[in-house]
Amino acid sequence: MHDTLIAEARAILRRNDRGAYTVPTHGLYPFQWNWDSALTALGFSHFDIDRAWTEIETLFAHQWPDGMVPHIIFHQPDDGYFPGPEVWDTGRPVPTSGITQPPVAGFAVRRLFERSRSDPAARERARRLLPRIHAWHEWFHRTRDPQGTGLVAIIHPWESGRDNSVDWDAALERVPTEGVAAFRRRDTIHADPAHRPTDEQYRRYIWLVQHFRNLNWDTARLHEASPFRIVDPGFNGILIRSCSDLAELADELGQSEIAAQSRAFAERGRVALETLWDDDLGQYLCLDRATGGHVKSASVGGLLAAFAILPRRRAGAIAERVHRLAARARFVVPSHDPDAPGFDARRYWRGPVWLIVNYMIADGLVRSGEDACARSILDDSLSLIATGGFAEYYDPMTGAPCGGGHFTWTAAMVIEMLS
Ligand code: 9WN
User: Fold this and answer.
1) Is the pLDDT of residue 360 over 90?
2) Mannosylglycerate hydrolase MGH1-like glycoside hydrolase domain: from which residue to which, for each copy (predicted)?
3) Contact 295, 229 (CB under 8 A)
4) What is the spatial distance between Cα 184 and Cα 373, in angstroms, rounded to a whole number?
5) With the C-alpha atoms ordered 76, 78, 83, 88, is the resulting torsion angle positive or negative?
6) How confident is the model at residue 178 (pLDDT cuts 50, 70, 90)?
7) Quick one: average pLDDT of 6-33?
8) Residue 235: which residues within 8 A CB-CB, separation 6 or more?
9) Mutational pocket test of ligand 1: of 96, 158, 348, the residue with most ligand atoms within 8 Å of the beta carbon
10) What pLDDT, in 10s, does the model give residues 329-347?
11) Is the peptide bond prior to 175 cis by the omega test (within 30 degrees of 0)?
């Protein structure tokens, strides 16, 4: 059974392989996405370690001079996706978007290194990536935490990777729609519109893109200029974990300065994360930096923070929260609490289960001593695959597959979980 699943997962990775990068799935997402690639490299690492390194090297070959790593790289023209390179108009030699995505590459590269430690070529590849990843982490702290709070903000829902989460509803309401040029969505041709964000949300997504484009994609100015500025515990949990892992990797490679700075970023982040804790829900909350208030929304972002490797009592509370969710949903971890306002079992990040999120929560929980909870998350993940195939996401109440099919990072997570 496991062997068959692994074979199917490998075939999906090969099918979506475009040589030096993978597409998340044929049709719906025809380019390279940032955090998809980093997590996909983990899948490759079990059967083609060279290809795994290449995936991340290609991503970093398109890093901006200021350190930002864009969320999409438009390697080849393809009008099957909106918004394409002409909408972003970032002026990069190979077109890219102008915003970023959850920085999971630091974590992934440490894993790759551990899996190829005895190979001198891998050591060299890690040595070359190390300063680039560190430059990205520095960019985050410089441009997305100008007050030095220890936590960074996202300035567009797409940066979170959890595009239409209930977490963003109130903040997105404040984003205007006047002046948004007419557009034609393509996602709803490839996937069921009932599983995707609404047109109203898309108008606000595009307003933000136009706004940043009018500021010439000067990333040093965008944080202050954006009406949408949110501190997401999941996003920060990922950054903290990557900084910690980069510190370990830098130690191994004798790069003591990068090690010290990365460790300092991670420690400051872990302390600051505490300010997002909510006793009521037993999880972390987002902070709306534009209003200064917490966003009382029971989303998976507050559980994904477990990836940072939390102190025992916090990890225990998150495990307890997952346990309570399991009493309501047939499959954990739903991206939104089924009992909370805004839950929608099939609409993208407003309820469905995502395997990448499950993987990261489980990984963090194991490292904080919550093995049983982590095991139940992984078991549910594999049951979803067995019944629904390698989908983009799944209905937590029925297990029905949703969004795109033959999905790369879903397949990569299956290989990672079973290997
Ligand atoms: C926008 C590729 C990406 C993921 C995101 C997911 C979705 C894009 C979209 O697909 O976002 O970046 O067009 O819907 O939300 O997490 O990286 O798989």
Assistant:
1) yes
2) 29-410
3) no
4) 43
5) positive
6) very high
7) 97
8) 102, 152, 154, 159, 160, 161, 301
9) 158
10) 999 999 999 999 999 999 9
11) no
Question: Residue type for 187, please?
Answer: D
* CA atoms of 8 and 48, how far apart (whole Å): 15
Cα(128)–Cα(59) distance, rounded to whole angstroms? 13
The dihedral through the CA atoms of 239, 44, 27, 381 has a sign that is: negative
Distance 354 CA to ligand 1 centre (A): 12
Paired tokens of 28: 């719906």
Cα 236 from Cα 319, distance rounded (Å): 19
Q: Work out the pLDDT band at 1, boundaries 50, 70, 90.
A: confident
Structure token pair of residue 344: 């929608």
Q: Whose CA is nearest to atom 6 of ligand 1?
A: 161
CA distance 225 to 248: 35
Pick the CATH number of 2-418 from 1.50.10.10, 3.40.710.10, 3.40.718.10, 3.40.190.10: 1.50.10.10
Residues 279-288 have a mean pLDDT of 98
Delimit the domains of the chain by residue range. 2-418
Structure ipTM over 0.90, yes or no: yes
According to DSSP, the residues that pair with 195 across neighbouring strands are: none
Q: Is any ligand 1 atom within 6 A of the Cβ of residue 234?
A: no
